[in-house]
Amino acid sequence: MSFIIDKLRKIFPPSIHSFNLEMDRVLRAIEEERQSIVSLSQKIDDQNQLISNELKNISLQTSQIKKQTSEAVWAHIFHDTIVESTWLKDKTFSPGRWAVGYPYLYVMYRILNEVHPKRILELGLGQSTKMIAQYATSFDDVKHVVVENDKSWIDFMLKSFQLSERSSIVQLDLEMATYKEDKAIRVYKNFKEQFVHSKFDFILIDGPIGSDMQQYSRIDILNILPGCIGEDFVIMMDDCERTAENQTTLEIERCLKRYSIPYKRGRYVGQKEFVLILSKNLEFITSM
């Protein structure tokens, strides 16, 4: 009899109830498998994100180590270069952080010592001022002008070193200005009026403070170019690892191109970066 029942079950379809039970079982199995796949996929995504974050951290750490190593190498090169300098009497400097770095000091010294600029404009009072002031003291035909906004900083710095009559500080307040589509750029007030009729062969830009600027920073020089430079010139812009300062150097280049002034561009890297824009005859400065 059981044999006949088995044969009939194979011939006739199962009852609706049995069919529904089987379908529920199959669907539950499929859902469990789907959930398992989703869970595994999420674990893989989480693991990939952890790996990605770790790789980014390693990359940042490696980059920082490279910069610190580069800065240390530049420090040795700088100290070896100035050790026998006849005009740089005070060889103590405190580079880094807000101040210029060792590559900046090294290139600046080489320019002063070998190019012998006579008209120097420095934006931002600091460690570079200590060097240029000694250079100006040693050479009668040099005129050195420093622009600074902070009176208390001026007073503090002048307690540590003395300026000769060939170096002067011009205190200019700060204000916010517009340049192209950027509506808030920190600049020196009345800078153009102060220097529009002056010419310089060495311009150093490390002010005003630009770390919070978004698109452009330290654009003061753009208001007096190209009339402020002679046939032979060097412009140094510090902090060019930042977008805003780097964008300003590109604007300087556009200005020179607009007036068909030949130039070369160079970049030095340590803990920070700076860009040189200079007349073509001084191209050697880009690879010292």
Features:
alpha/beta, seven-stranded mixed β-sheet, Rossmann fold, 288 residues, two-stranded antiparallel sheet, 9 strands, single chain, 7 helices, 2 domains, 47% helix
Structure notes:
There is one protein chain. The model has no long low-confidence stretch (mean pLDDT 88). Strand 2, helix 5 (151-160) and strand 3 form a beta-alpha-beta unit. Helix 3 (102-115) runs parallel beside helix 4. The protein folds into two domains: 1-69; 85-287, Rossmann fold, CATH 3.40.50. A seven-stranded mixed sheet has the order 3-2-1-6-7-9-8, sandwiched between helices. It is of the alpha/beta class and 288 residues long. It is built from seven helices and nine strands. The chain has helices at 2-11, 16-82, 102-115, 127-138, 151-160, 191-195, 243-258, and strands at residues 119-123, 143-148, 167-171, 174-179, 182-188, 200-205, 229-238, 264-269, 273-278.
